[in-house]
Amino acid sequence: MAATRYRRFLKLCEEWPVEETKRGRDLGAFLRQRVAQAFREGESTQIADPANCDQMYESLVRIHTNFYKNKYPRLKDTSFTGVTVEECKLILATDSGKQTEEMKKGKWKKLREKFSPRNAEEDSKL
Q1: Distance CA 57, CA 34 (A)
Q2: For residue 79, what are the CA distances in angstroms to 65, 69, 82, 96, 106?
Q3: Do 6 and 39 touch, CB atoms closer than 8 A?
Q4: Local structure of 48: helix, strand or coil
């Protein structure tokens, strides 16, 4: 039975997309890591709690197939802020997060970083 569970999780991992815009924060990549940890021995892995494993699998399938999105359709594709899905994806991308952090820095901090020594070798030269 563990072999069947393992194959189902592998199939789910294959179907789950990896979003390159969310490096380090992607649910698909995290899922792959967790499956690799849980099934270290592959098909011969002994599962301590099969009922919990099956429940987790079913929950992940519902997320992957947009079960609740289809069950409870939204009237509009915007939120209370008026931001569309595409704009939200752009905002949540890892690269835009780095840009936002850069914008949050004050002028004094930017100048200090620009003119401060980069490493210990430069410290010793001064």
Answers
A1: 12
A2: 22, 14, 5, 20, 31
A3: yes
A4: coil
Q: Which two tokens stand for residue 61?
A: 């399938």
Does residue 70 sit in helix, strand or coil? helix
Question: Hey, what long-range contacts does 89-97 have (CB within 8 A, 24 or more apart)?
Answer: 89/21, 92/21, 92/22, 93/21, 93/22, 94/21, 94/22, 94/23, 94/24, 94/25, 95/21
Q: What is the tens place of the pLDDT at every residue in 26-68?
A: 888 899 999 999 898 888 888 889 999 999 999 999 999 999 9
CB-count exposure of residue 104 (10 Å: 0-12, 13-18, 19+) = exposed
Q: Can you tell me the distance from the alpha carbon of 25 to that of 39, in angstroms, rounded to the nearest whole number? A: 22
